Amino acid sequence: MLTWVIYDISEDKARLKVADRCLDFGLRRVQKSVFLGEIPPNRVEEVIQFSVEILDPDTDSVYVFPMCRDDFSKVRIVGLGFDKKMALDEVLTVVI
User: Fold this and answer.
1) CB 59 within 8 A of CB 3
2) Choosing a second label site near 26 at 20 to 30 A (CA), which of 34, 39, 45, 74?
3) pLDDT reported for residue 15
4) Is residue 56 within 8 Å of residue 11, measured between CB atoms?
């Protein structure tokens, strides 16, 4: 399932843990606090549960948005965007 994870976390340590977990799930960072990628629906629940365990609910938030590919194809970006193919892991090799 194509999934966006967006967060606003005040504590550096908790923010790093959520970012690392997103990367562990195979999500790609598209902005500093925004990740996107394909993960199975049961893994989406893991992201949510992990976030619940480490966040301060009075100051922090994590948004998890599942999205179908048809809707993703309708996403519009103004200004500097991100590489949709890279975020969806459709690029097999990147040479830097």
Assistant:
1) no
2) 74
3) 94
4) yes
Residues in the chain, pLDDT under 70: 82-96
Q: Which long-range contacts (CB under 8 A, 24 or more apart) does 83-89 make?
A: 86/28, 87/28, 87/30, 87/36, 87/37, 88/2, 88/28, 88/36, 88/37, 88/38, 89/26, 89/28, 89/37, 89/38
> CA 6 to CA 4: how far, in whole Å?
6
Cβ count within 10 A of residue 55: 20
pLDDT at 87: 58
Q: What domains, with CATH codes, occur in the chain?
A: 2-87 (3.30.70.240)
